Amino acid sequence: MINKLRIVIADDERPARLFLKNILQDFEDVEIVGEAENGAEAIEIIKEIKPDLALLDLQMPEATGIDVVKILRKSQLPLVAFVTAYDEYAVQAFELGAVDYLLKPIEKARLRETLNRAHERLEQTDFRRTDAANLKAVVAAYEQPADKTFLERIPIRLPDEILLVPVSEIVSVTADGELMHITNLQNKKYTINFRLKDIETRLDPKKFVRLSRSALVNLEMIARIAPMPGGTYSVALKNGQEISSSRFQSRILREKLLKL
Questions:
Q1: Would you tell me the crossing angle of helices 88-96 and 127-142 to the nearest 10 degrees?
Q2: Counting runs of H as helices and runs of E as strands, what totals does the chain give?
C-alpha cells in the first residue's frame, strides 16, 4: 500500500491552485487534504488537518507564506515548500536552510523532487522539531533587510503624461478587484491596474502596514487607532480616511505596533 503524502495548497490565485492540483493528481503517492486562498485560511486548515506538507505561496493577502510559518507554533508546523515567482533573495535564503522552494511556473519534475524530499524527511525520527527550527531560522533570515531595495516613487500613467508619486506622500493603497487606488495626503486618488500583493513586496515593511486583505497604509500617516468590538481597530489617517483592520491583521498590528 502506498504511503500517501497529505498536502495542503495555499495560493490566492485560483488558476495557480488549479494548475498545482492538476499536477499533483498525477502522482499516486499524494493526497490533497486542504486548499486555502490566503494565509489566514492556511493557518486554520493546517491547525485542523495537520498535513504532512504545505505548499505555500510566498505572497498572499492577509498573511503571506512567511506569516503562516511565523504564526504557527513549531509543534503545528508541517513540512513546508514555498511557491514563488522568481525571487533571488528568497532562493538564496531557502537554499541555506532545510526548506524547499518551487519557482513559478512549476515544473512537474521539480515538484516530484520536492515530494521525494518530503517523503525522506518524514521517515526521519524527530523530523518535525528539527525542520520547524530550521524553517523558523530561514524565515528570520529572509526578513532581514539585506540589500533589498524598495520603491521611492510610483509611476502613474495619465492620458498625456506619467506622474511620479513619491512613496513618502502616499497615505493608503487600497484594492478593488484588479484595480489599485493610491491616495495621498491631499486626498488625491490615483487608480492603476496593479495587484496589491505585488506592490506590497516593493514597499518598505518598516513604513507600510497591511490592515486588511484590501488595504495598506503608511505608518507615518496614521493619526490615531481606536479599538473596535471583536478585537479589530478603526485606523484614522491624516487625510481624513478611516480604514478598519481585519481580525487577523489586527493580531499582527498589536504585535508590531501596539506593544511596548
A1: 150
A2: 8, 15
- Kindly report the backbone phi and psi dihedral angles of residue 46, in degrees, each rounded to the nearest multiple of 5, phi listed first: -65, -40
CA–CA gap between residue 1 and residue 186 (Å, rounded): 66
Q: What DSSP element (H or E) covers 23?
A: helix 14-24
In order of start, what are the domains of the chain with their CATH numbers? 5-142 (3.40.50.2300), 153-256 (2.40.50.1020)
Burial of 124 (0-12, 13-18, 19+ CB in 10 A): exposed
Locus of grid cell 512567511: 66
pLDDT at 124: 79
Across 146-158, average pLDDT = 83
Residue 121 banded pLDDT, cuts 50, 70, 90: confident
Q: What is the mean pLDDT of residues 179-198?
A: 92
**CB-based contact 24:30 (threshold 8 Å):** yes
Bond prior to 105 in cis (omega within 30° of 0): yes
| 3-state SS class at 55 | strand
